[in-house]
């Protein structure tokens, strides 16, 4: 299997977590924004990542990929067999992929505006150092007007994080006694708020000021990191996508 991805996409991270949970061997192809997306489209008809290639089949969308992997590798199960609990997991996943994802993305934009080093670290690895330095030198106060527009989203995000902590203070996982796709979908969005070790040395433990550095949210990130360890999430090698590579499995 090959995963075509953006390294710091929360939806690509969601797929990586599912692959880790299933202990499925795969390789990754880092799609370069712009030209890489066009090359991906020529091969697959998809411009957006994640896209999973398995044999001659190309599967797009993180939820579709997760459901495919659940079907081909049922253990450990990430979707309960009991219909009510299964429905609750899928509803939680949809909330994480929509409302939580939108709020986390806006918060990361705000965080990048406030933190020049974070702005530079989020650029693709192939970005020339000179451009990374230039992006980092843009004064944060130049972007303050945009930040004001994001405040309503941020307030909603803080409320969601507090409610998640209420649930996780009472039980080890969001639904049921074992990790499910609901936990994975939420953890993938938390990736953007405080980057875990798998994000690389430049980003590890960095994140959105006012969230990543707040003691009251520490239990949430501890839970996320424990989930990563439980699922066996590890770093995989990446290389730019030129449209023609065959990459061996890890």
Please provide a brief summary of the model:
With 250 residues, this protein is an alpha+beta fold. The protein has ten helices and four strands, in the order E-H-E-H-E-E-H-H-H-H-H-H-H-H. It folds into two domains: 2-72, Glutaredoxin (3-Layer(aba) Sandwich), CATH 3.40.30.10; 83-231, Glutathione S-transferase Yfyf (Class Pi), Chain A, domain 2, CATH 1.20.1050.10.
Brief descriptors of the model:
Glutathione S-transferase Yfyf (Class Pi), Chain A, domain 2, globular, Glutaredoxin, alpha+beta, 6% strand, 250 residues, 10 helices, disordered C terminus
Secondary structure elements and pairings:
Elements: E1 2-5, H1 10-21, E2 27-30, H2 35-44, E3 51-54, E4 57-60, H3 62-72, H4 83-114, H5 116-121, H6 129-137, H7 144-149, H8 151-170, H9 181-193, H10 218-231
Parallel strand pairs: 1-2
Antiparallel strand pairs: 1-3, 3-4
Any overview of this molecule?
By secondary structure, the chain is an alpha+beta fold. It is built from ten helices and four strands, in the order E-H-E-H-E-E-H-H-H-H-H-H-H-H. It has a four-stranded mixed β-sheet, covered by helices on one side. Strand 1 (2-5), helix 1 and strand 2 (27-30) form a beta-alpha-beta unit. The termini are close together. 35% of the residues are buried.
């Amino acid at each position: 299997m090959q995963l075509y991805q953006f390294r710091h996409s929360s939806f690509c991270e969601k797929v990586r977590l599912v692959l880790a949970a299933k202990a499925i061997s795969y390789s990754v192809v880092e799609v370069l924004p712009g030209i890489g997306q066009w090359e991906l489209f020529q091969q697959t008809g998809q411009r957006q990542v994640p896209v999973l290639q398995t044999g001659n089949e190309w599967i797009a969308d993180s939820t579709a990929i997760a459901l495919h992997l659940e079907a081909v590798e049922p253990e450990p199960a990430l979707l309960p067999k009991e219909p009510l609990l299964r429905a609750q997991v899928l509803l939680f996943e949809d909330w994480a992929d929509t409302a939580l994802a939108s709020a986390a993305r806006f918060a990361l934009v705000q965080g990048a505006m406030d933190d020049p080093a974070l702005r530079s670290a989020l650029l693709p690895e192939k970005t020339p150092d000179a451009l990374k330095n230039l992006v980092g030198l843009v004064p944060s106060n130049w972007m303050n007007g945009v930040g004001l527009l994001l405040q309503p989203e941020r307030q909603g995000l803080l409320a969601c994080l507090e409610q998640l902590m209420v649930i996780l203070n009472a039980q080890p996982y969001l639904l049921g006694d074992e990790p499910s796709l609901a936990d994975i979908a939420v953890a993938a969005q938390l990736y953007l708020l405080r980057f875990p070790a798998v994000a690389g040395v430049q980003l590890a433990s960095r994140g959105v000021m006012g969230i990543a550095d707040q003691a009251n949210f520490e239990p949430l990130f501890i839970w996320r990191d424990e989930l990563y360890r439980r699922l066996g999430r590890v770093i995989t090698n990446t290389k730019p996508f030129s449209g023609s590579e065959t990459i061996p499995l890890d």
